[in-house]
């Protein structure tokens, strides 16, 4: 989709076949040791995300979807198994800044203006002033917040704060975006608008995305592929290929194929056999 | 399990090491006594002057206790009135704010003029004034902290103002009053000791520390310091127990 | 708009509060018994003689007159201001020392959790005990201690006492502040692979400002209290603490004079608190959370 404020960053990578996958998770277990004994948060998880692919992780609370994302981001380490990001270890990928990340809370620093928040990763990694200014202007335009550059986070609505956080996660043109329920705290209307914007932005940048959510329509609207997880122990139990095409706009939410995909994901979640539909699911149990 | 052991062990170990290090350093480096007498010598002094120590502690402790009780009572009552009467609150607010940043013990000499130099009252007045500030501020904060849900609920019950005070406002304010009392209990002892440095009767811990130091009785001075530390802990511990008793009754 | 009328009300009522104190003073002095009120041998209300309770206007008048009968002596108020400035200087030196040491200790505790476990209980304990009782002992270092080329001077004792009173609130406040960033922020900085030092500079210190300012407010008041008390127990000349004792000793002959240095100590406390308030305004950008919360 083309809009007049569309800006494609010069260094954006396009989805390519061949080479290393964006994320490769193989045989991962994660056990947390708490006061009441051990909790198996993830059990034998395998997952591959291709470059440029948008993958949602969906499942009820406690299914380990956020834990899996944190492992990919090297915010936690797996108990067993391996995690690779673009063929490197998760730790190496973090040190090399191969991904951008957004959390459920926008996590903006309250003492920095909107522009200064977007600029943060660039400044921390030593980009020069002119580069920083140019990139910040570009990003703020991309998320439609140019006129709020000088505002402070507490002056913005929740949706606007989340857009700033997304701009910040895109600051260094990452080829991989990790998003942990970034729209979870927003109202339904803001949420749908943000989803449309995210579809546009990721198609502009061509980054692979791992997106954690517990909303079925959100996962279906955004993703190429929806990965279904169940708790106790957290594991992957199904996958639904959505493939609703790149022309995703508001009309799609009323489309038959959309409903069919929603049904497929719902049934994968509840563990019933999926009927034939536009989207096809696989039960991995 | 191991975490708990480290949590308890680490501060104990640090305390023992500090005491042992103190002893070894003072003995080994032969530090002059005015700088730091060794702990064993202080302990010996505590034994030697035990009776005098108890008397001085009792004198200072009584001043601190009387001041604490009077100051805290006045503070709670004033806060309760100020919470209801806005203009009174606004009249008192700048005075309390000023009292919070001002060295109140400096009043000791003029209070001696007012009440007589042979009276215990000046010191008790000082303690009461010092105690008043944190208790008043915390009580007022507590009385204003009524959650909107509770207020709406009481309104829907058409409760009278007195019912609201008794069922919602006061119980909600109790933890805040105790926060103020915790701070105040330490301040009471500190200011009771310090007020003695400004002259007046020579019967308490503060004046004994000063006169021992002036006569080069350094280990003796440290023995009185140890007694004032014990007194401070006694007051603090007592308010903690009081708080536990009061809050248990409220939650139970 | 009603803004104007809303803003003058607290100011007027505040002034009325101060005035009320004066009226209470003079009213009791006019009506109360000359020898005060004694209940069961304990003085409960003060004497109302001119010796015990001088008129407020006498206090003010005395402050404008020369301090001593010596020809060309400075007026009392000037002597008080000079003494207050000396004390302010010593208290500031102590405050700086206490703040630096307090923040360094907080950094150590933030970095190494074992250090926090070992030190924290002592830190809390030490706030409940009268450490200031040590003042006469630290004072006895004066003129005797030699640290290399530096001769220990009495004003340094005063500064040290001020600094250790300032130290505790700073250490506690700084630790709380350094640990205040939420998980989303610390996670974010971890994903940026920043060093401990950069995280400190860009995240922990800015986030600690709302905790450091109230700590500084407490520390400032404590440093001034420490300096005044130390001056009293040293007899260190030049400061306001010494002046309080000196003027009080002339009390029976000149009761109104004793109030001038006390007013000076009060103004000193207010002035220092005002400076901290201004610092808070200058750091407004780091306190946005606090204001919206």
In brief:
The complex is a heterotrimer of chains A (285), B (252) and C (293). With 285 residues, chain A is α/β, with parallel strands linked by helices.
Give an overview of the whole structure:
The complex is a heterotrimer of chains A (285), B (252) and C (293). Chain A has a 7-stranded mixed β-sheet, with helices on both faces. Chain A has a 4-stranded antiparallel β-sheet with strand order 2-1-4-5. Chain A is of the alpha/beta class and 285 residues long. Chain A contains 8 helices and 11 strands. In chain A, helix 3 packs across helix 4, helix 3 (114-124) runs parallel beside helix 5 (158-169) and helix 7 (216-222) packs across helix 8 (256-270). In chain A, strand 9 and strand 10 form a beta hairpin. The model of chain A is unreliable at 1-17 (pLDDT under 50). Chain B has 2 domains: 1-31; 34-251, MetI-like fold (Orthogonal Bundle), CATH 1.10.3720. Chain B contains 10 helices and no strands. Chain B has helices spanning 2-28, 39-48, 50-84, 86-101, 108-115, 121-144, 148-156, 161-195, 205-214, 218-251. In chain B, helix 3 runs antiparallel to helix 4, helix 5 (108-115) packs across helix 6 and helix 6 (121-144) runs antiparallel to helix 8 (161-195). Chain C has 293 residues and is mainly alpha-helical. Chain C has 2 domains: 1-53; 67-292, MetI-like (MetI-like fold, Orthogonal Bundle). In chain C, helix 3 (76-111) crosses helix 10. Chain C is globular, with a radius of gyration of 24 Å. The model of chain C has no long low-confidence stretch (mean pLDDT 83). Chains in contact: A-C, B-C.
């Amino acid at each position: 989709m083309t809009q007049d404020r569309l800006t494609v960053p010069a260094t954006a990578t396009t989805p390519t076949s061949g080479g290393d996958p964006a994320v490769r998770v193989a045989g991962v277990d994660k056990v947390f040791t708490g006061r009441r004994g051990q909790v198996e948060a993830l059990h034998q998880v395998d997952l591959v995300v291709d470059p440029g692919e948008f993958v949602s992780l969906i499942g009820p609370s406690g299914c380990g979807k956020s834990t899996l994302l944190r492992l990919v981001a090297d915010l936690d380490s797996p108990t067993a198994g391996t995690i690779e990001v673009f063929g490197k270890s998760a730790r190496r990928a973090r040190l090399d800044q191969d991904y951008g990340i957004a959390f459920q809370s926008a996590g903006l620093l309250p003492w920095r203006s909107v522009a200064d928040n977007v600029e943060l990763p660039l400044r921390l990694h030593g980009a020069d002033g002119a580069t920083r200014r140019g990139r910040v202007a570009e990003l703020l335009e991309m998320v439609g917040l140019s006129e709020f550059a000088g505002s402070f986070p507490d002056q913005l609505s929740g949706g606007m704060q989340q857009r700033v956080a997304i701009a910040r996660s895109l600051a260094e043109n990452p080829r991989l975006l990790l998003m942990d329920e970034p729209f979870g705290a927003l109202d339904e209307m803001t949420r749908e608008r943000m989803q449309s914007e995210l579809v546009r932005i990721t198609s502009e940048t061509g980054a692979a995305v791992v997106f954690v959510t517990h909303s079925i329509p959100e996962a279906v609207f955004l993703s190429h592929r929806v990965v279904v997880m169940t708790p106790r122990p957290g594991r992957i139990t199904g996958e639904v290929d959505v493939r609703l095409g790149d022309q995703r706009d508001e009309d799609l939410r009323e489309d038959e194929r959309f409903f069919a995909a929603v049904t497929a994901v719902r049934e994968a979640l509840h563990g019933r056999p999926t009927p034939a539909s536009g989207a096809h699911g696989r039960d991995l149990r | 399990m191991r975490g708990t052991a480290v949590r308890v062990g680490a501060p104990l170990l640090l305390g023992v090491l500090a005491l042992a290090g103190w002893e070894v350093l003072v003995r080994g480096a032969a530090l002059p006594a005015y700088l730091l007498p060794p702990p064993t010598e202080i302990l010996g002094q505590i034994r030697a002057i035990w009776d005098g120590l108890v008397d001085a502690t009792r004198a200072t402790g009584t001043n601190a206790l009387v001041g604490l009780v009077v100051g805290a009572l006045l503070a709670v009552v004033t806060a309760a009135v100020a919470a209801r009467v806005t203009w009174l609150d606004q009249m008192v607010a700048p005075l309390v704010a000023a009292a919070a940043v001002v060295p109140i013990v400096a009043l000791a000499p003029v209070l001696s003029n007012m009440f007589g130099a042979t009276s215990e009252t000046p010191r008790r007045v000082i303690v009461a004034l010092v105690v008043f500030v944190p208790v008043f501020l915390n009580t007022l904060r507590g009385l204003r902290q009524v959650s909107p849900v509770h207020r709406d609920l009481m309104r829907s019950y058409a409760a009278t103002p007195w019912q609201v005070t008794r069922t919602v406002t006061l119980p909600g304010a109790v933890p805040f009053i105790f926060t103020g009392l915790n701070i105040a209990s330490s301040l009471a002892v500190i200011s009771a000791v310090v007020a003695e440095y400004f002259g007046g009767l020579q019967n308490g811990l503060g004046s004994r520390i000063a006169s021992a130091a002036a006569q080069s009785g350094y280990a003796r001075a440290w023995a009185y310091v140890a007694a004032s530390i014990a007194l401070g802990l006694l007051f603090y511990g007592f308010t903690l127990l009081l708080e536990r008793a009061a809050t248990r009754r409220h939650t139970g | 708009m009603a803004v104007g009328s809303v803003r003058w009300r607290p100011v007027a009522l505040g002034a009325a509060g101060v005035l009320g104190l004066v009226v209470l003073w003079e009213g009791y002095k006019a009506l109360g018994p000359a020898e005060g009120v004694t209940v069961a041998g304990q003085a409960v209300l003060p004497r109302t003689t001119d010796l015990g309770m001088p008129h407020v206007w006498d206090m003010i008048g005395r402050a404008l007159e020369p301090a001593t009968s010596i020809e060309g002596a400075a007026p009392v108020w000037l002597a008080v201001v000079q003494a207050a400035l000396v004390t302010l200087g010593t208290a500031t030196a102590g405050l700086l020392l206490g703040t630096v040491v307090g923040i360094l200790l907080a950094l150590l505790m933030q970095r190494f959790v074992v250090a926090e476990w070992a030190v924290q209980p002592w830190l809390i304990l030490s706030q409940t005990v009268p450490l200031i009782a040590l003042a006469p002992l630290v004072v006895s270092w004066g003129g005797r201690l030699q640290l290399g080329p530096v001769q220990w001077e009495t004003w340094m004792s005063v500064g040290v006492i001020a600094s250790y009173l300032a130290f505790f609130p700073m250490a506690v406040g700084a630790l709380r502040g350094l640990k205040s960033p939420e998980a989303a922020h610390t996670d974010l900085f971890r994903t940026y692979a920043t060093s401990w030092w950069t995280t400190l500079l860009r995240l922990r210190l800015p986030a600690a400002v709302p905790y450091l300012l109230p700590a500084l407010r407490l520390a400032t008041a404590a440093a001034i209290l420490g300096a005044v008390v130390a001056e009293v127990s040293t007899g260190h000349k030049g400061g306001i603490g010494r002046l309080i004792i000196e003027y009080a000793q002339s009390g029976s002959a000149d009761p109104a004079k004793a109030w001038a240095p006390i007013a000076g100590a009060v103004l000193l406390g207010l002035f220092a608190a005002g400076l901290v308030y201004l610092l808070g305004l200058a750091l407004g950008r780091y306190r946005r959370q606090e204001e919206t919360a």
